[in-house]
Amino acid sequence: MAGTTQRAGTGTSKAVTRRTAAKAPAAPVVAELVDDDVDADYDLEAVVQQRRDALGHDGDMVTFKQGGAVFEFPHPLFASDEWKEGLAGVRGDVAFGHYVLGEQYDDFRERGGQSSHIALLIDQIRKDAQAADGDGRPTQSSTFSRAQRRRQKRR
């Protein structure tokens, strides 16, 4: 849509074309896989599977015991984008507990669980995910950049 804009300090108006903010177009596919002959830096499915293997985790759900019962919720690394988007909108510890455990939350509370315990568990899951790779070696922090690794190789 066309509109007018006044230039600061000039007192003159200039017709400009304004564009409404639009969603960025999807990036084009670089190469369509017909068979395995297309090279890429990473195979994302293999990376995800390696992480699952390193964590000893074969599914998308975390299970834990509380008060003699087993509860579950989506693993933070493998949860769907929709679940994570919903989680981002949660305000407060109790609402967090309800969101993470859903219909299980009341039973969890009756068995002595608290919403803060779920936060502690998720923190432990995060630490475990950072603690070791598939070979049991400590992983490097996310601040350890690719450039730093290259510099170390040159030495």
Task: Provide an overview of this structure.
This protein starts with a strand and ends with a helix. The chain is an alpha+beta fold and 155 residues long. The strands form two sheets. The protein has a two-stranded antiparallel sheet. A two-stranded antiparallel ribbon has the order 3-4. The chain has a domain at 59-136. It contains six helices and four strands. A hairpin with a 2-residue loop joins β3 and β4 (69-74). 39% of the residues lie in helices and 14% in strands. Mean pLDDT is 74; it is low at 1-21 and 140-146.
Topology overview:
Layout: E1 2-6, E2 13-17, H1 44-55, E3 61-66, E4 69-74, H2 81-88, H3 93-101, H4 105-110, H5 115-131, H6 146-154
Counting H and I runs of at least 4 residues, what is the number of helices?
6
Report strand %. 5-15%
Number of strands: 4
Q: In order across it, which strands form the biggest sheet?
A: 1-2
Structural class: alpha+beta
Mean pLDDT across the residues is 74
Helix content: 25-40%
String of helices and strands: EEHEEHHHHH
The outline comes out as elongated
First CA to last CA: what distance? 58 Å
Main sheet, how many strands, which sense, barrel?
2 strands, antiparallel
The rounded Rg comes to 24 Å
Uncertain runs are 1-21, 140-146
